[in-house]
Amino acid sequence: EFDSYNPEGSSLLLPAFAEDCKEAANHLAKDIETLGFKAEVRPTAGHPAIVAKANGNAGRPHVLFYGHYDVQPPDPLDEWVSPPFEPTIRDGNLFARGAVDDKGQVFCLLKAYEAVLDAKGNPPLNVNFIIEGEEECGGDVIVDRLKQEPERTRAGNDCAATACVASGSRTVNSQPLPLPSLRASMVPPCR
Q: Is-catalytic flag, 132?
């Protein structure tokens, strides 16, 4: 339960929510570490970003997942049946601000990662996550982070990492289905 919203259509971050966003980032980083990632909360010009890395499979593909933990404003508040930042299950569905954009998708990607770990806790490929807190207000966190750390997009030997963005969801046979989108290779392909 984290109130981490940014104003709709604003390029400004609301200082009143800075601590909530920092708390959300720290909480998420700790959860990610339980999966064997080395996760860090990195300061930015606005809300912090989480940078996480899980290696151990030389020669295996490298995937960079992107997501965000900030949300759009909950207004108008009187249209919510339950408080927007208190997750509530009604009729088998989860209702909470950000459950669909983008916290739910990030959660699904982390659970999918957890499901494919081998008996020793090793992933079948190399994985990085960048999860930011400024997507809803148009921040440049992802661009800035990749400029500062271009190695996040490389799998070694100048091989490309594939970027996957958790960017929506839908329901299929009454089950939630995240819709990650493949955004293409980020550096020249392996030779």
A: no
Catalytic site includes residue 91: no
Q: Which of 20, 70, 102, 132 is catalytic?
A: 70
Closest CA to 132 of 102, 164, 152: 102
- Of the residues 20, 134, 135, 136, only one is catalytic, namely 135
Average pLDDT over residues 138-151: 74
DSSP string, 91-143: TTEEE-TTTTTTHHHHHHHHHHHHHT--TTS--SSEEEEEEES-GGGT--HHH
pLDDT tens string 77-118: 899 899 988 889 999 888 888 877 778 888 888 998 999 898
What pLDDT, in 10s, does the model give residues 53-73?
987 677 777 788 888 888 877
45: three-class secondary structure by DSSP: coil
Sign of CA dihedral 174, 3, 106, 34: negative
The pLDDT, as a whole number, for residue 38 is 94
Grouping H, G, I as helix, E, B as strand and the rest as coil, residue 53 is strand
